[in-house]
Amino acid sequence: MKTYDVAVIGAGVFGAWTALQLARRGKRVILLEAYGPGHSRSSSGDESRIIRMGYGKDEIYTRWSQRSLAQWKELFARIVCRCFMRQAFCGLPVPMMRGSRKTRTTLRKCGVPFEELDSTGLRACFPQIGLDGIHDGVLEPHSGVIVARRAVAATVAEAIRLGVTYAHALVESPKNKGTLQSVKTNNGEEIFAGHFVFACGAWLGKLFPEILKQRILSRGKKFFILDCHPEIHVSRPPALPTFLFQNDESYGMPDIENRGLKIALDAHGAAVDPDTQSRVVSEKSAQQMREYVARRFPALGMRPSRKRESVNTKYLERRFLIDRHPKWKICG
Ligand SMILES: Cc1cc2nc3c(=O)[nH]c(=O)nc-3n(C[C@H](O)[C@H](O)[C@H](O)COP(=O)(O)OP(=O)(O)OC[C@H]3O[C@@H](n4cnc5c(N)ncnc54)[C@H](O)[C@@H]3O)c2cc1C
What is the pTM of this model? Predict the structure, then answer.
């Protein structure tokens, strides 16, 4: 019987990095994943994710983002993997939005380089964007995009190189009381460890229904990939930055690696089960997106070519959830 210092359950971005960091500290770690690192049902499994620094007054997120980007870059440099695309991020708030003022204050305090653009500056830099209702913007020239699925797979590969045991297995919902000493997998194995980290994203509510079903909100989130006319270059970086239209609750990124321009709607969709969720976006939503694109990107002549619904997980209090199980004792 092999025991580990830590068993990490879930190889999305959080589980993968947890396993890697523990391995760097010399711990014996097993990483258990039901579908595979960065699989397409997971939140981390898409082509791209924005990494930016401005989060209003919440300095903790800015500082976490700074540390996170530094660590991603260090990992990618070591393993020679091009998974960070530096390209300006532009936050486009509504006029005089307090959040935008606070973002600037926080960025200044944390030493993040940024530029402030008024409407003239925005029009000069990004003539392809329809700016109605937008009078200023914050440009972070050093932020950009992580190539998500590839980056998660690379993190797991690095963790394995440092000695982490990776197992493709579904961990069953623990039924014990008191101290957790082992978990069972769907292939009949029992894994013993001193500590267990459940980094299961949208699945947490299914694993721990008694404490999390009402607190973890797994919602469908729609995003669209837009094809551009081959002669139109303003949809690619550096002409188009990664963007966030705060008031529209939409954000996206330019055509990276010829995958098309991506736009996601931040609005919460219906509650979904991450194992069975349909990824098909309705024709009504696609039509709304066509109208939206015509308003915000009138010059690009784009049309949605691919559209998908993904699962987004929000903790009820709209914060990250990092906690100990309230009923289990800590051993060791
Ligand atoms: C459309 C969309 C766009 C987003 N855009 C951005 C963005 O631009 N920037 C940004 O910072 N964030 C963005 N996010 C949020 C970000 O993607 C998530 O916060 C992050 O990926 C969550 O990672 P995770 O590891 O918690 O979850 P996941 O990636 O979902 O990983 C959880 C893993 O646990 C595994 N698992 C679950 N249960 C078990 C079990 N019982 N046994 C074994 N394995 C199990 C699952 O298979 C899965 O692989 C976006 C999210 C979505 C959906």
Answer: 0.93
